Amino acid sequence: MPTKEEIFEKIQTALIDALGVDDDEVTPEATLVGDLGAESIDFLDIVFRLEKSFEIKIPRGELFPEDILTDGQYVQDGKVTEVGLEELRKRMPFANLDEFAKNPAVQDFGSLLTVADMCRFVEGKVEVTG
Fold it and tell me: What is the CATH number of domain 1-58+113-130?
């Protein structure tokens, strides 16, 4: 069972390898898209690396629920609706959506997820010590 520190270190390594960034750029506050430059294709690589590092299975859309952002039921005029925000909160309890909810533009969603959010996601998938 890894500690929170070990989880962060493994995620940091996965992001360094997947995105070609320096270790000092991968801080808990860093956003995957805005700060680290991740693109949609990188998310597949990141998920693969996390699955290998932690010996877990991450179903498609669990960490990055992009299907919500393309569903007319949840998006209107380029913004995520209240119903969509509720669905995102349900599916992403590890992410703080408060700031995004103030102006829920679909194109800004990618800039939401931080390294700390990823750590909380993995902590929810594995038993954490300490």
Answer: 1.10.1200.10
